[in-house]
# Entry
Amino acid sequence: MKKLSSPWALGMLLLAVLLGAASLGLAKPRPRTLTIGMTYIPNVQFAPWYVAQERGYFREEGLEVKFDYRMDIDALQLVAAGQLDLAVAGGDQVITARAQGIPVSYLLTLYAKFPPAIVAKADSGIKSPRDLIGKRIGLPLYGTNLLAIKAILKKAGVAESQVQLVDVGYTQIPSLTAGKVDAVVGFANNEPVKLRAAGQAVNVIASWDYLNLVGHGLVTGEGQLKRSPELLRKMVRATQKGMRYALDEPDQTFAICLKYLPELGRDQQRIEKQVLYESLKLWENDYTRQHGLGRSDPKAWDESQRLMLELGLIKKTTPVRRLLQQQFLEAR
# Structure
């Protein structure tokens, strides 16, 4: 056999080896596509995923991620059925779904502090839950906000019959400013910020001062857990990177968010930037500082289920080990 001694011959041999490897499927694999149900319109609250997209954290993990903004009340059913890969949803929604036999699990916490708060005008005299007796409270009469007001009233020893819950949907701000209600239930990182920006002084009763309940986070289906654990690990890892970057670089993070909110005017940008800063404060609590960003306290799940059962919001509880799947989270 003729000896391959020239550089040209050696180069051709190397090229042949590389082409052969590619033909055997050893080339870099194509990205795997995952779809996240955001269950809301584009918003700064989705900063970790916007950061992960723009800074290449998804790409580094071999993922192509699509954001689905359909405000679908059946998001968790779609996740359980595999029609969505993941969703951003409340811990209370996961508990409710499981109680109804819908197999979904919570992977990572975004809001380590339960975000709902009671908001009232500063001159209303409402500073504590007991000040709500005889008052009208506006909120959407379902979901996380409803759980919050029921739980806070119970904790404070105030019977629901002592207040008037008024269904105002998501019109909390105009309902309060117009005097249609005396207080509203919203998210601590949203309604108070926007009311103050409009010149309205407010009092805020934060739910985390009274309760240890579970906030919003990243959710997937039990089937996805069995089929694609490594994909979920990659998604969780990229999300954690996005969260860490946002906490370290809030100004740069807001600039990234603006790419997804191109319609915002200058005044709206100023308000939304403050909403982002207030949101970042909810991502950490004593538990996450001790155990790691994105981790959720199992005791909070026990307390959430107990309260929801007592309030008649669920008819049965689910073992926390089925509700909460934290094995994909990186250690501190």
Q: What stands out?
A: Residues 185 and 218 are 23 Å apart (CA to CA). The radius of gyration is 24 Å.
